[in-house]
Amino acid sequence: MSEQAPGDPRHPVTGATTTGGVPVDASIAPTLDVVAAPSEPALVDGRTAAVCGLAIITAIAAGFIAKGLTALIAFVTNVSFYGRWTFAAVSPANNHLGFGVLAVPVLGGLIVGVMARWGSAAIRGHGIPEAMEQVLFNQSRIPARVMFLKPLSAAIAIGTGGPFGAEGPIIATGGALGSVLGQLAPVTPHERKTLLAAGAAAGMAATFGTPVSAVLLAIELLLFEYRPRSVIPVALASAAATAVRIWFGDTGAVFPMTMVAPPTGAALTFYIVLGAFVGLLATGVTRTVYWIEDVFDHLPVHWMWWPAIGAIAVGIVGMIVPRTLGVGYDNIADTLDSRIVGTALLTLGVFKFISWAIALGSGTSGGTLAPLLTIGGAIGGSVAPAAARLLPFAHIDARVSALVGMGALFAGASRALLASVVFAFEATRQPMGLLPLLGGCTASFFFSALLMRHSIMTEKIARRGQRVLGEYSVDFLDTLLVRDCCARPPVSLAADRPLSEVREWIASRAEGSAHQGFPVVDKTGLLVGVVTRRDILEDHHAGMRRISDLIKRPPAVIFDDSSLREAADHMVREGVGRLPVVQRKAPRVAIGMISRSDLLSAHQRRLAEGEYQMGAAQRAFGGHEKPAFE
Fold first, then answer.
1. Which structural domains are found in the chain, ordered by start?
2. Which range, 129-133, 217-221, 317-321, has the best average confidence (pLDDT)?
3. Longest CA span, the chain
4. What's the 3-state SS for 576-609?
5. What is the pLDDT of residue 534?
6. Which residues contact 149 (CB under 8 A, 6 or more apart)?
7. pLDDT per residue over 2-58, tens digit each?
8. What's the CA gap between 572 and 578, in Å, rounded?
């Protein structure tokens, strides 16, 4: 064994520096071209700009598709209920077909069933759960034919009296357009997801003129994240689609209301209680829809016939309450301005729910937003008069009550809280309704989440055995730096050390010999590679071999100011279980080591904090504290 010079800071066996100091002037350290280091992350880059361009193109196309689908629905409605060939907007409620109303929805259901059977089964349903499923489990790939079949089938279903809104199919069509463009362009799956969300947001913005809520809906239901490189393209797409809508002359509120007064404290309390009540109803609405879907699943006929069977209920309900037929945006506007009140409003809400739930459960093509708004508005508007008589001092406004009911049912059923609040504001442009909406929608969201694990958007996916997260938070590993969690100083091995000597050192179980990986340094102290304990012990031809003979590749390193998430990602990319830690100014001077076990150990802090907070809460409420660690 070689002699160690006096003052030599190297280990007597490994020949490695263990002080963590820099043994050589950092200015002569080689640059990153000889080590595999992760690139510095950026919030946005040139690719983001390219995706923005594609998103704007998608949005402009979605804006024209939205206008075309609206016109097509009007055309089918005119032909089906009035026998005239025109694209003029009209409600099917004023038809004079008598018992003939029964046949129109059934014919539409038959056509949709045939299109789904021999065209694409993806056109069934209201579109958003299907888009979510593609985002989560299919790299945001939607077949191109859906882009054509979805709007056509929706126009037929709605135009023949289906109790749906046009927004769901338009959102699904816009998402399909973005996905198809993302499959044609050289983009990553993540960028394709952004284009899908941009198309969906553009569809909603073009339909209702609600660009901000469209972005929020995309974030809460499709993106599953909030990052600049995702949000910026979606926001630009939403703005572009709204510009197309304005170009067509649609500049006003889609559901105009007369001005309302600011709420009193008592009225605000009532609106919050109303939101909580609507949240309870939202769970019932969701469970009923999927219970009806289960009933159809057990029918002894092919699913192609289900839309026609469900349409029988649509026709019967349409004969009793003609206002339930079709899109019904006029019903929402009338409810919000108190032009439908009392028994008529309650009847509309109940029968709209019956017609919509059966039709949606049958698997036909349609949307959920407009029906939820109609039903929620009917609930809020119906209870307002009784509340006003009971609480005359509160100055409860039936219009605001209907607005809160509308937004709260959407929030409770979809779990898109912020999108629900902002949508109701943008659709009516009533600034005084924002505070009641915030309170009511939040209460609805709370009780819905308390009583039901999945929403009307995610229940279908969950039933297929897939897991959909209902909450998003910052990755804990992103909050911690490598320098705070790595092992320092590193126990390095000299590249020229005989392999046999290092084996003896490991066998002696000396300090530092239990590590699973060791950085290898040259005579100047610069990093040249990494060897593992297995490399050292499994080599059967030690002889005159040296540690440098075991190095198989250039070293993969991580910077000390990188996050643990970057370290974990770099380990996966490089296929290694540990990384030397270096500084950016000296990328070949190892100052520490970080391993997979260090990443797992970092979570101990998160769990300990959670246990501590839970214990504090239990003590505050008179409970018993559970120890953080047994």
1. 26-40+478-596 (3.10.580.10), 46-247 (1.10.3080.10), 265-463 (1.10.3080.10)
2. 317-321
3. 108
4. CCEEEEEECCEEEEEEEEEEHHHHHHHHHHHHHH
5. 85
6. 115, 119, 120, 122, 123
7. 333 333 444 444 454 443 433 434 333 344 456 777 777 778 888 999 999 999 999
8. 10
Assigned token pair, 608: 């300990």
Task: Find out whether 364 and 159 touch, Cβ atoms under 8 Å.
Answer: no
Are the C-beta atoms of 432 and 399 separated by less than 8 Å? Answer: no
Residue 152 neighbours by CB under 8 Å, 6+ apart: 72, 115
524-538 burial code (b ≥16 CB/10 A, e <16):
ebbbbbbbbeebbee
Tell me how far apart the alpha carbons of residues 416 and 206 are, in angstroms, rounded to a whole number: 19
CA angle 473, 479, 480 (to 5 degrees): 145
Which has the closest alpha carbon to 152: 136, 175, 169, 174? 169
> Lowest-confidence range among 299-308, 321-330, 611-620?
611-620
Rounded to 10 degrees, the C-alpha dihedral 230/236/238/243 comes to -170
Q: Which of 267, 274, 266 is nearest to 383 (CA)?
A: 274
Tens digits of per-residue pLDDT, 190-208? 899 899 999 999 999 999 9
Among the listed residues 329, 471, 460, 459, the one whose alpha carbon sits nearest the alpha carbon of residue 406 = 329
DSSP state of 375: H
Mean pLDDT for the stretch of residues 123-139: 70
The span from the CA of 290 to the CA of 295, in Å, is 9
Residue 360 token pair: 């949606």
In tens, the pLDDT along 51-85 reads: 999 999 999 999 999 999 999 999 999 999 999 99
Short-list 142, 179, 158, 159, CA closest to 62: 179
CA distance 228 to 235: 10
Query: At which residue do the structure tokens 């690139």 appear?
Result: 39
Tell me the residue length of the chain: 630
7 CB-contact burial (10 Å; exposed 0-12 / middle 13-18 / buried 19+): exposed
Encode pLDDT of 180-194 as tens digits.
899 999 988 889 989
| pLDDT value, residue 580 | 93
**N-to-C CA span, the chain:** 47
Q: Which amino acid is at 82?
A: Y
Tokens 């059967």 belong to residue: 540
**For 215-276, what is the HEC assignment?**
HHHHHHHHHCCCCHHHHHHHHHHHHHHHHHHHHCCCCCCCCCCCCCCCCCHHHHHHHHHHHH
Report the relative pairing of strands 493-494 and 517-521 from DSSP bridges: parallel
Of all residues in the chain, what percent are helix, strand and coil, respectively (each to 5)? 60, 5, 30
Q: How far apart are CA 474 and CA 479, in angstroms?
A: 8
C-alpha triplet 475, 480, 481: angle, nearest 5°: 135
Which residue do the tokens 């929608």 mark?
A: 441
Say if residue 189 is preceded by a cis peptide, omega within 30 of 0: no
